[in-house]
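Worked Example 4.2. Read the sequence first, then its structure tokens.
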Amino acid sequence: MARDLDKALADIVAIRSQIAAGTAFRGYGPATMAATGAVALTTAILQFWLLGDPTGEPLPFFLGWFIAAALSGLMIWIEMRARSRRHHSGLADAMIHQAAEQFLPAGIAGVLLAVVMWKFAAETLWLLPGLWQILVSLGIFASVRSLPRTVALAGAWYFVSGFAVVVLASQTHTLSPWTMGLPFVIGQSVMAAILYFASGDNDVED
């Protein structure tokens, strides 16, 4: 009896996961995406004012961007939970799990890459801003199947900007707040615009 109950519950979870996989995720809101772009711009401006030599001070440079990423992630997570409850009701948890599962590998890779480069190849840290942008693009591409297909444009932006930043930084091997800030300001603004036009007027009310 207990085994049958466990199997029934497992079947229910599987069915919910399949339904979630075929449902467009509406947990991301354009206003919050635009706000994360503002966080990136603010971080770049503060570092431009406060860090005289980011290359010579990589710890405060990358710590600032870790804080910006954590703040942006928290903003997205809070809104994602609230919007999912409204738009997906009973499927909310499955939809959130699916969204996190799609982007999490790229996020974890970004953190581990920073730690490994810091500890074992500090002279290559100038590569990290571009590599982070490439990883963000891969996370976005992984999420395309549950979001408006036009978000691929934002993924393409981060992919191109990541390689462009690597090429630019290779000339001087230096760190700059703007090679981090500007690509993310533009990329998050593109994401916000795509989500706004894809969801119509509903997001204005949300």
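Now turn to a second chain, presented in exactly the same format:
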Amino acid sequence: MPSRQTVEAFVALVEAGDYVGAIEHFYAPDASTRENIGEPVVGRDVLMAKERGVMAGFRKIEASRIGPVLIDGDTVTARWKFTFTGMDGSSRTLEEIAWQTWRGDKLIEERFFYDPRQMAQ
């Protein structure tokens, strides 16, 4: 079970825009993520590379937590708002729920739930 301090440190990195650092410091080596019903992406190094690729496609990505992060044993849930600013200056906003499973102070599985139509706006 992660401590509140650990989860808040993770959230602080995400809100600071250090998405790769959050993965590097808090995800287990065998961690996986999955978006909606997509196939899981497995492995911390793979996840960091994927995140770098996403970040390269945008001028800026801003994250902010909406409401409290809920911790129940090894399960952590957060509601996020991401604003993606494209290279052309256009922006899109995505709200999502992140459902996480932790093993001690390491995140081992994260699933993102969102309406993909948000990115088409």
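Notes for the reader: The mean pLDDT is 96. The chain is about 25% helix and 45% strand.
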